[in-house]
Predict the structure.
Amino acid sequence: MEDVTNAAILILNFLFVPGLTYGCQLALGALGVTLVYGILRFSNFAHGETMSFGAMICILVMWWLQSLGVSIAPLPTVLLALPVGIAATVLACLLMDRWVYRFYRRQKSPPVTLLVASIGLMFLLHGGIRFAIGPDDRVVGDGARFIFNAREFRHATGLSEGLAFKTSQGITIVVTVLLVAALFWFLNRTRAGKSMRAFSDNEDLALLSGINPDRVVMITWVLTGILATIAGTLYGLDKSYKPFVFLQLLLPIFAAAIVGGLGNPLGAIAGGFVIAFSEVSITFAYRKFVAYLVPESWEPEGLLQLLSTDYKFAVSFVILVLVLLIRPTGIFRGKVI
Amino acid sequence: MSFLSGEHMTGGYGGGANILEDCTITVDRGEIAVVVGPNGAGKSTAMKAIFGMLDLREGCVRLDGEDITALSPQARVRKGMGFVPQTANVFTSMTVEENLEMGAFIRDDDISETMAQVFALFPILEEKRGQPAGELSGGQRQQVAIGRALMTRPQLLMLDEPTAGVSPIVMDELFDRII
């Protein structure tokens, strides 16, 4: 019996908790992509870099705060920097819209033109970020590292398998729940949120109802800026911040948005968790897990890992291709691309 | 002086050919005007021209004596015009009640009275107020669409084929209610 408990704790510790945290980060990223797609009707490839930009501003402000000796231990200092990061990112989003996207919108350009423009902005932002903060890996978290660690858990329960819960994981989950609740409240209960849904549903009819398109677009960029900054900062807090990572992160984020159904916020969240748990569970080495459950002589020699972690991005790519082939609208019936 | 007049309207979409050629429509206050013609005659296009959804190259549109040719569709809604397009005339993912709320988007005052009037006109909508409009039947959708346009309390209501795709019985009923 104890072996079964140990096996369950092992899965919880190395698969479920990391998957849940990663899923939250992907869900927040995918929400930003899906909002822009729903309202502005193009796939925003610059979203990963928008996340990176927000996280970078937060880190710069965090360093400044640390140099002043400000601390909110046991919570990480970077949380204090979030409002500044959000403000800067929202401003950046609005300026990008004003200087680039608005021109193509007025021309009534096809979505692919806007998509290519967003790829241009992605490279521009990426270069700017690497220039400003450098390409190195940065540790973001300070304060208490664990809510409880493996040793404490083993001591408290007497099990041989430990369960650790990092502060960054706790913060990620709590912040995601609060943010998503606030977003859905906004979209479903407020006039501005409803006008966004109306605009996404039927643009012409929204105009006929007197909804101001410029205002809807502005609110969308504000929401995108908030979501991107928080998603980027949480990802940096949980792992570490490295500008290059956000180019790669774009794939699982888009996969999450498309799997859930583009333009559907609920789908983006579901898609985030589908992608995260697939990625984590396929690249997980099950040897120790099996060893707990089978007699000692049956213990496997190999790692029992389906795919090396080097290939983790292949997982989201395969899921993306399968969804596009079998159910192009995604789980929650979003728009067909 | 008629209430609405579209005079010598000539225009088409984007840079394309003229679809409307020297078209004039005038309607008096309190009058019900009907545009009849075969498929492709330009009935819908003329309505879109009046509502500012077509690029006019010549001619002008006047509402109550005021020249509104340069105004955007959403600005014309504020001037008291309402339009129910032929297709895609409801927000399918939103509930009936939210559809009506969006219809009244430009109003800052209390809309509950107007909503009660719409519900009195189309009782079925009150029953289905919490249901997404996309799940309703064709006739019920049409009622939502008209109800949405009525929510602004327009002085001028334009309906583009309000009975398209609706059974004759429902059509009779619909016209009774509209008129």
Observations:
- Chain A touches chain B through 17 residues (CB under 8 Å).
- The two ends of chain A are 50 Å apart (CA to CA).
